[in-house]
Design brief:
Two copies of one chain form a homodimer. With 368 residues, the first copy, chain A, is α/β, with parallel strands linked by helices. Chain A contains twelve helices and eleven strands. Chain A folds into two domains: 148 residues, Isopropylmalate Dehydrogenase; 163 residues, Isopropylmalate Dehydrogenase (3-Layer(aba) Sandwich), CATH 3.40.718.10. In chain A, 43% of the residues lie in helices and 15% in strands. In chain A, β1, α1 and β2 form a beta-alpha-beta unit. Chain A starts with 15 loop residues before the first strand and ends in a 19-residue tail after the last helix.
Chain lengths: 368, 368
């Protein structure tokens, strides 16, 4: 079932098929199927293959009136949130996650979405989809609320791998630029390299080398390299893509989320403090809702795995229906743009030799 | 002038003397002297030695009515914000920064405050005050708004050095614990080690080793080690002290500040959006002001240098009078608690051998 035809509206229409792992995530199949329902309602051009325990999923799909939009693939096993990636790579063949990734590998779906265990999803995706030639370390890219025209920056790597050398950082710059072009519609993305100071004498050796490599490659890749940026620039309008290693990126992402969540909580307390402030909150409800929406992490839900032969979107484990629907929307947009092929072409065009050419990870900390 | 006597209120009183570099900082001597005036008014127990160009400072001090509280030390030169630390170490003898640090070295003041160039201030402080026996790498500790009872966590290192091995991380845990006890009044500080996941199989090798070292030393040091924490835990009530290397800590600090500043800006926009929301903002003014104060970075202004024979407080370069006054308050509190001596005793009691025993840095990336 690669495509289905719907002649009800404007003749034969090709549906983009998204493969969804229904079993990952803290809230289980009900949240995932609700998210599918939200997306299905908004966008008639998406078809779904849903992977997991059919006995749990089928009633939910039926109740949501989605039987004509969803094909269900019954799988017996589930990857738990604390499963070790290496274990899943060896023993995960009967899991919903594996089946969901394989639907992309087999060309039945154009992208996969999972709320499951990040490390396991990366391991299974690398094993089944393989890396794009020229890419040594795949990366996870996230969207970040910012002062940009579009309202979002991209940051990568936010946790695929805990380290990166200068050539990995160069590849992240190229892959992130390609994502910004195809996912956010930015013609000439501005790339910044995360460091502790903007002066060129600061920072680690590999970051300094990466600076020179990216500066050299940027013009040919139609990227604008703005040089070093600091943590404070992440939500700014100075850059579209922030490049860093997975350790630093993961800490920054979670620190930003934690800070936003603390402020939201304090804001709620402030408006509940007095009768007068409760009344004020009521008056400002529209404005406050717009603000809350702007910084709602569920709206930017979806880490994209870059550097694989196929589009993989990792949704937050705690995602609710809104979160799952955001991740599906992102997967759909990337599938429609032919993103994976464009990214592969971009990486190939730079002619950077790969560390390893067998398509398998040479250094496999990403699986640890 | 180590102490001055003030018989006006309750007999002979010993003043704690704070040495202030008036020339660092983006706003120059006027902001620094205004900050001194704020502190002097609130706290009659502080005396000041103010370092910088007397021709600029004296009129400000006189106008603020502070001539009996401030001794002025005339210095001809200023450390610029882009000066290289190594250059300042060789040629900085006539700068206000050097003079300010020397007042602590000579026992004339109990702590020093500067808004100047961080790298230069660390280099001059290390050169003049020397490291505490047993400490290899001094660290910069910052306060972070959190859900703690006191409203603040401590994070270190936030930028003294871009790397740290397991023994450095252990020392940061001990020094941060001592700071939490003496600066925040927490009897048994909870220590967390920053990592990308709370599972023990994740993270870099030196972080895993540090985990074991800290777990082993914590009981004797009267610390509660909570193990690994993630970026999202920084503003939480799980920990009082977050331990990390200076690269990661600096990125996290600036990311948190940047996120808070983006949200403040969006909040302002939201309340200015309509007439109704402007009216609402007026009604909620009291509550909003309390919130703004709670997350105001000026209130937590002051990175403390830990591991030196003397208390050094680095204020934000952009600090205004409120920011400078916060930094002075922090310096006063630490000076009063005899913090430096207690910290030295704590580090010595762990009996950890130092990497180097000559009191000078063996690895001097911190000066780069």
């Amino acid at each position: 079932m690669t495509t289905t035809f719907d002649q009800s509206t404007h003749g034969a229409r090709r549906r983009t098929v998204i493969s969804v792992d229904a079993m990952g995530g803290d809230q289980g199949p009900p949240a995932v199927v609700s998210g599918i329902a939200k997306s299905a309602e908004k966008n008639p051009d998406i078809g779904f293959i849903v992977h997991g325990r059919a006995a749990e999923i089928a009633p939910l799909v039926e109740k949501a009136g989605l039987t004509d939009r969803c094909e269900i693939r019954d799988t017996a096993e589930v990857v738990t949130m604390d499963a070790k990636p290496a274990h899943v790579m060896r023993n995960g063949k009967n899991t919903s996650m594996w089946s969901a990734v394989d639907a992309v590998k087999n060309g039945e779906a154009q992208a996969v979405v999972s709320c499951g265990n990040t490390g396991a999803l990366m391991a299974v995706s690398m094993l089944r989809l393989r890396k794009i030639p020229g890419v040594d370390r795949p990366a996870i890219a996230c969207l970040w609320p910012s002062r940009n025209t579009g309202g979002f920056n991209i940051m990568l790597d936010v946790g695929a791998d805990i380290r990166a050398d200068e050539r990995d950082l160069l590849q992240y710059a190229l892959m992130g630029g390609s994502y910004a072009r195809n996912g956010l519609g930015i013609d000439r993305p501005r790339i910044g390299l995360l460091n502790v100071g903007t002066e060129e004498h600061k920072g680690r050796a590999e970051i300094k080398s990466a600076h020179d490599l990216i500066a050299e490659m940027a013009p040919a890749a139609e990227l604008e390299f703005v040089g070093f940026v600091e943590g404070g620039d992440i939500p700014s309008n100075r850059v579209d893509v922030i490049v860093t290693d997975g350790f630093t990126g993961n800490v920054a992402l979670k620190t930003g989320e934690g800070t936003a969540s603390l402020i939201r909580e304090l804001l709620r307390e402030a408006f509940n403090a007095t009768l007068l402030s409760k009344f004020a909150a009521l008056l400002a409800l529209g404005s406050l809702k717009r603000l809350t929406k702007r910084i709602d992490p569920r709206r930017v839900n979806g880490g994209v795995f870059l550097g694989l032969n196929g589009t993989v979107v990792k949704s937050h484990g705690s995602a609710d229906a809104t979160g799952v629907s955001s991740a599906i929307k992102l997967a759909f947009r990337l599938a429609e743009s032919g993103f994976t092929d464009r990214l592969a072409a971009r990486v190939a065009s730079t002619g950077q030799p790969s560390h390893d050419d067998d398509g398998m990870p040479e250094k496999n900390e990403q699986n640890a």
